[in-house]
Amino acid sequence: MSDDLTTLHDDGVLEIPVSLETGGNALDRGAILAGTDALHRVMRGNLKARAVLLTGKGKNFCAGGNVSDFASADDRREFLRGLAHDLNTFLSALYATQLPTVAAVNGWAAGAGMSIALHADFAVGGQTTRLRPAYPGIGLSPDGGMSWLLPRIVGLGRARTILMRDEALDAETALDLGLLSEIAEDDSLVSSRARELAAELSNGPTGAYAAIRHLLMTSSSNTLAEQLTAEAESIADLAVTGEGVEGVDAFLAKRIPDFPSARS
């Protein structure tokens, strides 16, 4: 399945671009809306995706919002509020699908582009990948969940420094901080490596991936006792799913589990 922007590959990977070559790889509102629609179709069961791949269609993943559009808006406050709402709806849908997500972070991921990259379970960068908040440079504050996710990944003190000093982080620094999960050997390999990883996740136990993500995201607000209970309930629930049964049966039979078939 493919429309003008999103593509569902045969292996169950739903590819969603967040920026296009036009507009300097700025966040593309039409692409975000198309991505949201595709994710909603996944949630309704009309699109059989098992993993999500976020990409940029040009030399950069996403250079942030289109500042020219900000400046030309009749009402800048309402324009930015509406754009932030569309981005928030997209990110909320991304989480609601409970699908593992990979970002192919080639070139720059700035502003909203950096925010989106932080939401991916795995972010693959290249040798020239750069991440930058970019908001203070134009006198604005973060959106797209950056102020929530960044301190959870790097710690409050480091997040404050990155944001307020508007630091441009190279690939190695981003990898060390956990903002990238790996760096491809060559920039030309970023897209193919991210695609390969997304396919690998699509063939894996997506129910377990969703549970892992949920447990990690809620752990900071739980007591140890609450987290132990949540883990016990989660593993018990998964044990009777198709994937859970297939995983255990395959282990005992000493064969590779077929998780995609177990979900159908």
From TrEMBL:
Top-rank lineage group of the source organism: Bacteria
Pfam families: ECH_1
Catalysed reactions listed for this entry: a 4-saturated-(3S)-3-hydroxyacyl-CoA = a (3E)-enoyl-CoA + H2O; a (3S)-3-hydroxyacyl-CoA = a (2E)-enoyl-CoA + H2O
The protein's name: Enoyl-CoA hydratase-related protein
Lineage of producing organism: Bacteria, Bacillati, Actinomycetota, Actinomycetes, Mycobacteriales
Record-linked PANTHER family: EG:BACN32G11.4 PROTEIN, ENOYL-COA HYDRATASE
Protein function: Could possibly oxidize fatty acids using specific components.
Gene3D superfamilies xref list: 2-enoyl-CoA Hydratase, Chain A, domain 1, Lyase 2-enoyl-coa Hydratase, Chain A, domain 2
Organism: Gordonia caeni
